[in-house]
Amino acid sequence: MKAAVLCEQPGDLEIEDLSIDAPGPNEVLIQTKGAGLCHSDLHFMEGLFRTPLPMVMGHESAGVVEAVGSDVSYVAPGDHVVACLSIFCGQCHRCLSGNPHRCTNIRATSRPRDAAPRLTRDDDTGVDQMARLGGFAEQMLVHQNAVVKIRPDMPLDRACLIGCGVTTGFGAAVNTAGVGVGSVVCVIGCGGIGLSAVQGARVAGAGRIIAVDMTDEKLETARQLGATDTVNASEVDDVVTAVKDMTGGGVEYSFEAIGLAQTVQEAFGMLDIGGTATVIGMVPSKTRVELRGIDFLAEKKLQGSMMGSNQFRSDIPMMIDLYLDGRLMLDEMISGRIDLEQINEGYSWMKAGTSNRTVITFD
Length: 363
Ligand SMILES: NC(=O)c1ccc[n+]([C@@H]2O[C@H](COP(=O)([O-])OP(=O)(O)OC[C@H]3O[C@@H](n4cnc5c(N)ncnc54)[C@H](O)[C@@H]3O)[C@@H](O)[C@H]2O)c1
Ligand SMILES: [Zn+2]
Ligand SMILES: [Zn+2]
What we know:
Elements: E1 2-6, E2 13-17, E3 19-20, E4 27-36, H1 39-45, E5 55-56, E6 61-68, E7 80-83, H2 93-96, E8 119-120, E9 126-129, E10 139-143, E11 147-150, H3 156-177, E12 184-188, H4 192-204, E13 208-213, H5 216-225, E14 229-232, H6 239-247, E15 251-256, H7 261-269, E16 271-279, E17 301-304, H8 312-324, E18 334-338, H9 343-352, E19 357-361
Parallel strand pairs: 5-9, 12-13, 12-15, 13-14, 15-16, 16-17, 18-19
Antiparallel strand pairs: 1-2, 1-5, 3-8, 4-6, 4-10, 4-19, 6-7, 7-11, 8-9
Helix pairs in contact: 3-4, 3-8
The structure holds nicotinamide-adenine-dinucleotide and zinc ion (ZN) (2 copies).
One zinc ion binds near residues 38, 40, 59, 60 and 165.
């Protein structure tokens, strides 16, 4: 099967023909139907975060179950599924205390170290999977706790977006921050993640949603999806002052959806007294963030969000219902559909800031 493989860091992806094993007892083999391009893969391609290589990239995919292992009863061949990197063991204290997205019990949901690799090259050497999913591939072999079964009338080239971007942004607003009716919100960065945070805030009933980005095109999309106000960061001297002026003091909830120290500082700086800033973007591991200590006296809070603090087996079907009811907008987030072979081109659009979400479709 064809897959997009990262062989060096920094580096582009190379399309390779790989062999995929039969499912182990707890595994599910999936025929991929749609895969979204998330910026997290690009961070790895640019070498901002280290990872074992070679690796099939991609972690935002949906498809149809082709085969299941002997211990799998949750899904059967023919079921439609979305894969999610929040693979939960279901047994540890994090899973059992209502935070399965924080599960670190990787051993329980991976193949034993001495087992055959899931993916191999012709010379029998193994190839890793990004986030233990490897979604930029014609087929995926994953643990059964990495998938959620979805209704069959949901188009899979849109369902895939919920696997990472929508779950992350929507969940950051609704689950991590708990945006409520009438809240004043600002989202910095309007890619797939930020646009989903805008939508989470809209569905939660926020009163005002200020979107910040560098281009008017991105801000126009944000308006379509629910932003009530916009700030073009390339046209103002200082984003914090602009947002404070617009709100008469600051926002209750801010979200950073880029991964830069400067915008994290902006997210914290624009808070009203008692406000909460949520960092969604992946800030490079050696980067430090500077805050003014006195701001904590004003009960301002700074927190991170991992995959929108999801419980994806219930959250994703709920978001699919919202989409099919016309309350979650996914079509408007997709700026292009491509073949697997065009993946580097797709990422060049993200680097240039000209795409929202690009989706790979498979025949
Ligand atoms: N926390 C998590 O669980 C999680 C999950 C998925 C992705 N992420 C991270 O979220 C971030 C966003 O991902 P994405 O796929 O939406 O990326 P993207 O590249 O599609 O979007 C980023 C947006 O930020 C804008 N931008 C860049 N610099 C800016 C600035 N200085 N001010 C205002 N806007 C600016 C860009 O124009 C772009 O629209 C990435 O860092 C990604 O790794 C985190
Ligand atoms: Zn992602
Ligand atoms: Zn666990």
